[in-house]
Design brief:
This protein is mostly helical. 64% of the residues lie in helices and 4% in strands.
């Protein structure tokens, strides 16, 4: 079929900063998992933690000043909306969303909260050998040990949320025949006209760079 007669519409839904945040976080989480167990790689783990904190702060700010589909006001809805979406999903009648659906939105919120807990506790943690978080001196050894325990347990919760997220991506691909990975790579979706609707507002990527600089400065002031 020629492009002229193509019934699908191509709509840009994910801006470049959101996509870079997503895949950078994926790479960092793999690196953090690989560097968490050995003392020889712990210094890399600490720097990776700073980078994750920068990304989380960036995403929180981007949720207010980013493109429409990245803003919390666009996709975060009450628990009731998430439950209704689950019911519709079970019946095969779930409505279509350009960005995050109500259930996926809560997954994003949960992941950001867990990442904040993970990076926050890491600032105070210690390994009882040679590595101490940059804010270790602000608390007692007992408090640092307690926060270190939270840091370790919370990582398991993060792995669980990530596993659920990956399962959802596979479910949408294999059952609903909707590829969620490609739009996060390309930024666009190809949709039939009845699902397309008005295109979301996509802001200039340079705004994302400005927000990232703010996040870097905040983390630098915190850990220097």
């Amino acid at each position: 079929m020629s492009k002229k007669n193509d019934p699908f519409q191509t709509i840009k839904i994910w801006d470049l900063p959101t996509r870079l945040f997503h895949w950078s976080l994926v790479a960092l989480m793999v690196a953090q998992w690989l560097t968490a167990e050995e003392s020889s790689t712990m210094s890399w783990h600490v720097w990776g933690g700073y980078a994750v904190l920068v990304l989380v702060l960036f995403r929180l700010m981007w949720g207010f000043v980013g493109s429409d589909t990245a803003r919390f006001s666009d996709f975060v809805r009450g628990p009731g909306a998430a439950l209704e979406y689950v019911k519709a999903l079970r019946c095969g009648a779930a409505p279509h969303y350009l960005g995050h659906n109500p259930l996926g939105a809560w997954s994003i919120v949960a992941m950001l909260v867990l990442l904040l807990v993970q990076t926050g506790t890491g600032l105070f943690a210690n390994d009882d050998i040679m590595i101490e978080g940059p804010l270790y001196a602000w608390v007692s050894k007992e408090t640092s040990d307690w926060l270190t325990t939270i840091h370790k347990l919370n990582f398991n919760l993060l792995l669980l949320v990530i596993a659920v997220h990956l399962s959802a991506v596979l479910f949408y691909l294999l059952v609903k025949r909707e590829n969620l990975v490609h739009p996060m790579l390309s930024g666009v979706k190809r949709l039939p006209p009845e699902q397309a609707g008005p295109a979301p507002r996509i802001v200039n990527p340079w705004r994302g760079l400005a927000v990232l600089v703010v996040a870097v400065v905040v983390v630098w002031l915190l850990v220097r």
